[in-house]
Amino acid sequence: MTDFLKQNWTYLLGAALVHALFAAVFGLTMISFTRNAPPPVLAIQAVVVDQTMLGAGSRREKQDQARKEAAERERLAAEQRQKEEQQQQQEKQQQEAKQREQQAQRETEQRAEQERQVELKQRQEQDQRRTQEEQQLRDKQEVERKRAAEAQRQQQAEAERQRVADIERKQKEEAQRRKAADDAKLQAARENELKNQLAEEEGRTQAENAGLLNAYIGLIQQRVVRNWNRPPSAQAGLECRVKVAQTPAGVVLSVQVTDCNGDAAVKQSIEAAVMRSSPLPPPPDQRLFERNLLFVFKPAD
User: Fold this and answer.
1) How many angstroms separate the CA atoms of 28 and 47, rounded?
2) Average pLDDT of 82-95?
3) What is the dihedral sign for C-alpha 62, 68, 72, 77?
4) Mind listing the pLDDT tens digit for each residue in 8-39?
5) CB proximity list for 212: less than 8 A, separation 6 or greater
6) What is d(CA 65, CA 67) in angstroms, rounded to the nearest whole number?
């Protein structure tokens, strides 16, 4: 009932306004004829009876309309359900038909695959027999080819052995000749080198005796001391042995401090001083050059 009122409140309101308008018109008419009208009780009762009948009729019409609408909705729902059931039935039939079609297709494919496998097996057997026959023929031809090749190889090997023997003999004779010449050259080179070494050593000894080596070492020591930054940890009486690898041009390649009475900071400062002194002073006599030089670092206190 509440839903009905919510859905048709506009119609109900209109009907109420119409009834109120009829009642107002009727009331004005009754007032104008009051003096000549019958007793008012009967007129009032008649108006009440008419309004009640009108309200009941309106309600019946609305109830009939609601029942018709409900019946229409039920009919439409039933038709919709029937359509859905028919559609489901059609879909089910289509699905079953599709499944049957797929099953038939699978069976057809299986039969085709079986036939293809049988045909493939037959071709493989034929290919295998043909391959075996061809292999047997090739084996026979290979045996004959190897026999002929072996005979030819033996002939070539014999000729090659003879050729190699001749070459080895000639090479041996040539090697003996070259060895004799090389021995003579080597002997002469050794004798010449020995003479040069003796002369070099004699010249170096003369230079050392003349004090040139000490002067050369002194020049290097002086340069390194000048480039040395004395660290705070350096104590008096510092004395370290320094190994230096240099090029003939005096470029320092590496430096190492050994046998030092200083700490690590002192050793590092000495190595840095040597690197800053590169290139080192050249020797007064080139025969005094030492690629690996050793000198004592002993700065004045």
Assistant:
1) 13
2) 92
3) positive
4) 667 667 667 766 776 776 666 665 555 554 55
5) 283, 284, 285, 288
6) 5
What spatial distance separates the first Cα and last Cα of the chain, rounded to whole Å? 124
Sign of the alpha-carbon torsion through 144, 150, 151, 152: positive
| Tokens, residue 288 | 């005094």
What's the burial of 24, exposed, middle or buried (CB within 10 Å: 0-12/13-18/19+)?
A: exposed
Residue 301 has pLDDT above 60, yes or no: yes
Query: Which tokens hold the place of 37?
Result: 């009208």
Angle at 160 between CA 156 and CA 164, to 5 degrees: 175
Per the listing, tokens 């090739």 go with 138
pTM score, two decimals?
Answer: 0.34
Q: Note whether 231 and 266 are within 8 A (CB).
A: yes
Q: Rounded to 10 degrees, what is the CA torsion of 179, 184, 186, 190?
A: 160
